[in-house]
């Protein structure tokens, strides 16, 4: 069988990202918006996706369509070691998906879609803004360290609709602060990742003092204490590498048992679908973003699914 030479070039790009090696006490996280991820993704694209994902222990995927055919294809390529947890379709017919290497990572039972005003269905109250595409979270464990991943695909919205984008980011930051400090939560270590549709991490310098709502998006993400490390801030994730749509952020407390090691993106542009102007449609228009976290055992874990 002829080996696609682009796979070898892609492997070089993966190595060039200098992702820290797997150890017993770390985990490799990947977040990736795979544009229109459905069963009609061609086999070549699926091979590239699987090639990248196999380097990670837990993966968050955005923009998975109602059609689960793409996940089925990916499952066959990754084999039974990798397991999937996925949401029901929400806005734009999209699902959010977690994939994890069950030899390294254990799913510990919590899985939920995030809403801002639960229990208010029968009350006459001022409506709370809800998400166009409901964020999704799940709990995991590795090396006796528990953590909770939250993945999002924030509404894009241009012009006057940028305010809705901003409000969604504010709401996820508010939710994460509340849950990560709640003693009844399964664990305090929450990691948020996904497509936040953040244009830039620093405000543009302008001659005129005219405010641009896009400048406030990144500040909104950090407004409730979420930490975005410099490795992530300095890693634009669109194909032109001038937009910071994707982010990985986390809270750190005195009892935290995860610590950030390193992060970045895998730049596949020019390695795959060479000279093909339809790269963003055939594969995706986002670079996969990664982070490695070191762990230590929880001192007082809740005794659930040990």
Structure characterization notes:
With 306 residues, this protein is an alpha+beta fold. It has 7 helices and 11 strands. Strands 3-4-2-1-11-10 form a 6-stranded mixed β-sheet. Strands 5-6-7-8-9 form a 5-stranded mixed β-sheet, with no helix packed on it. Helix 1 (5-16) packs parallel to helix 2 and helix 2 crosses helix 3. It is globular, with a radius of gyration of 19 Å. It starts with a helix and ends in an 11-residue tail after the last strand. The model has no long low-confidence stretch (mean pLDDT 94).
Major sheet characteristics: 6 strands, mixed
Indicate the percent of residues in helices. 10-25%
* Backbone CA Rg: 19 Å
Structural class: alpha+beta
Shape: globular
Per DSSP, the total helix count is 7
């Amino acid at each position: 069988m002829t080996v696609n030479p682009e796979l070898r070039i892609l492997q070089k790009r993966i190595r060039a990202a200098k992702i820290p090696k797997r150890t017993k006490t770390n985990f490799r996280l990947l977040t990736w918006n795979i544009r229109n991820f459905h069963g009609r993704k061609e086999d070549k694209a699926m091979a590239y996706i699987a090639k990248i994902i196999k380097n990670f222990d837990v993966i968050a995927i955005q923009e998975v369509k109602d059609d689960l055919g793409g996940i089925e294809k990916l499952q066959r390529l990754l084999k039974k070691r990798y397991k999937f947890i996925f949401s029901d379709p929400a806005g734009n017919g999209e699902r959010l998906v977690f994939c994890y290497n069950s030899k390294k990572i254990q799913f510990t039972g919590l899985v939920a879609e995030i809403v801002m005003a639960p229990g208010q269905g029968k009350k006459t109250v001022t409506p709370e803004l809800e998400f166009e595409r409901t964020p999704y979270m799940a709990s995991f464990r590795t090396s006796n360290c528990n953590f909770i991943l939250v993945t999002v695909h924030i509404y894009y919205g241009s012009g006057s609709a940028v305010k809705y984008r901003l409000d969604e980011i504010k709401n996820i930051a508010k939710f994460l602060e509340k849950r990560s400090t709640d003693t009844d939560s399964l664990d305090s270590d929450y990691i948020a990742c996904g497509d936040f549709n953040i244009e830039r991490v620093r405000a543009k310098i302008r001659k005129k003092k005219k405010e641009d709502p896009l400048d406030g998006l990144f500040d909104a993400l950090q407004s409730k204490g979420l930490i975005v490390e410099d490795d992530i801030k300095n890693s634009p994730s669109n194909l032109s590498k001038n937009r910071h749509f994707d982010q990985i952020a986390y809270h750190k407390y005195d009892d935290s048992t995860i610590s950030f090691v390193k992060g970045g993106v895998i730049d596949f542009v020019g390695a795959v679908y060479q000279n093909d102007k339809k790269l963003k449609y055939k594969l995706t228009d986002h670079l996969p973003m990664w982070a490695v976290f070191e762990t230590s055992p929880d001192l007082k874990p809740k005794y659930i699914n040990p």
